[in-house]
Specification:
With about 425 residues, the chain is mainly alpha-helical. It has helices at about 5-20, 30-45, 75-95, 105-125, 125-150, 155-185, 190-195, 200-220, 225-230, 235-245, 245-255, 265-285, 290-310, 315-340, 350-365, 375-400, 400-425; strands at about 60, 70. It folds into 2 domains: about 5-260, no CATH class; about 260-340 and about 385-428, no CATH class.
């Protein structure tokens, strides 16, 4: 049973390689491709009984560097089980492949490989190996974007996404090298514990590079271009990419970096940045004319901002545990609203907007008699101001700003409640 974690990772990688090796088998039944994810998700539940056990397997990946092993930490195991079930959900969420002409096994194979790599990156105890695994995961995400969302492999947009994801990997690698310089080890727990003896300048440099890597992987502004591209993916695939791949690993990295957050000024700055992201996302949601895909990205921005807001408050553990389920819920809500809009024959009329334009063009300009006195011109300006204010209120209403504020309040309340329950149960 000690090799259960390593065996689960190997099985995911083998399934992915198998489906990639047979990309032209279009007649392969969808159930045959999806069923292994359900079986492996059931098997992942056995990992819960392995929490706290010795490392499953130690491998010397790089000569002269301490061996790397997959460890059974409680937080990492819980998240790994969520990742397994999230992949199963993504596979069975779409009844029909979309688009069918491109569904030749690439999505299935890459998703299995991404799941295995994500589990290994969550549980490995060596920084260099984790950086390499995250780079492989980012490459798998980029391949999915190129195959299903971007126009061509050689497009400028694909190059931009590639460079953006490499920026996050380089920032993480830089942080790891600085940690190794004054700790002398690549072991994650040992190196992070050594930061208590680091100078303030070194601590600030580590925190800056680490938060840069977190921002790119979580896809928060101004690093959200790759997340916006995922809105062109099929529903199950897109929700998997923005929930169970890089963003989840970015949230877990933020959770592990809490040891660097001992300054109240740093905690205040992170909380302020989180509030700004939440306000920014709410503003996007309430903006008139915003597309459904942009609203989905705005909801993800709000969710990412909550992580920064809760990072130094003791609720970060609950945020990480609730990260993937909330992303799945956001994807489901966005999909259901997208389908309801597509089923309508035409958009609902907006009589108040039309009335505002009529009032401006006709009612306030009926003839030269209204321009004969300054008093009438003042009345004209007052009425225009009233109409402008009424239009502003109407835009806020049609944008359903109050609904989105309610959703944000409910989500924040759920995270805080889960944090309280986690604290009462002894924590993770």
């Amino acid at each position: 049973m000690r090799l259960l974690l390593s065996g689960l990772v190997i099985l995911y990688l083998c399934c992915g390689i198998l489906f990639l090796a047979l990309p032209q088998r279009r007649r392969l039944a969808p159930l045959v491709r999806r069923a292994p994810s359900f079986v492996l998700a059931l098997g992942s539940l056995l990992l819960l009984g392995q929490i706290g056990q010795p490392p499953s397997l130690e491998v010397r990946w790089i000569p002269l560097v301490e061996p790397a092993a997959l460890e059974h930490g409680a937080m990492a195991i819980y998240i790994s089980v969520m990742v397994c079930w999230a992949l199963c959900w993504a596979h069975f969420s779409d009844v029909a492949a979309s688009p069918p002409e491109k569904d030749t096994g690439f999505w299935t194979g890459l998703s299995y490989i991404a799941c295995g790599v994500a589990i290994a990156a969550l549980t490995v105890n060596q920084f260099i190996v984790r950086v390499a695994l995250l780079d492989v995961l980012a490459l798998a995400v980029l391949i999915l974007l190129v195959l299903y969302a971007l126009p061509s492999v050689f497009s400028l947009k694909a190059l931009q996404q590639f460079l953006l994801l490499r920026l996050g990997d380089l920032a993480l690698l830089f942080m790891v090298l600085v940690l190794w310089r004054f700790s002398g080890t690549f072991h994650i727990d040992t190196a992070l514990s050594a930061t208590t003896m680091a100078a303030p300048g070194q601590r600030a440099l580590l925190l800056f590079s680490g938060l840069l890597a977190v921002g790119v992987k979580m896809g928060v502004p101004p690093f959200d271009s790759w997340v916006r591209t995922t809105t062109d993916l099929p529903w199950g695939m897109g929700t998997w990419v923005v929930g169970a791949t890089l963003p989840l690993l970015g949230a877990y990295l933020l959770y592990r970096l809490q040891i660097l957050l001992i300054s109240p000024y740093v905690l205040g700055a992170l909380a302020l940045l989180g509030v700004l992201y939440v306000v920014m996302g709410i503003g996007w949601l309430g903006r008139e004319g915003t597309e459904r895909s942009d609203r989905f990205v705005a909801a993800l921005t709000i969710h990412g901002g909550l992580g920064l807001l809760l990072c130094g408050t003791g609720a970060m553990g609950a945020y990480v545990l609730s990260f993937l389920p909330l992303r799945m819920v956001l994807g489901w809500v966005w999909r259901s609203r997208q389908l309801s809009v597509s089923m309508r024959a035409e958009p609902a009329p907006r009589p108040l907007n039309g009335l505002t334009r009529v009032n401006r063009a006709v009612a306030m300009r009926t003839g030269p008699l209204l321009e004969t006195s300054s008093f009438n011109r003042v009345i004209d300006r007052v009425m225009e101001g009233v109409l402008w204010f009424g239009g502003l209120l109407q835009r806020a209403h049609t944008g359903q700003l109050h609904t989105y504020v309610l959703w944000v309040t409910v989500v924040l309340g759920g995270v805080v409640l889960s944090a309280a329950l986690l604290a009462l149960s002894g924590g993770v």
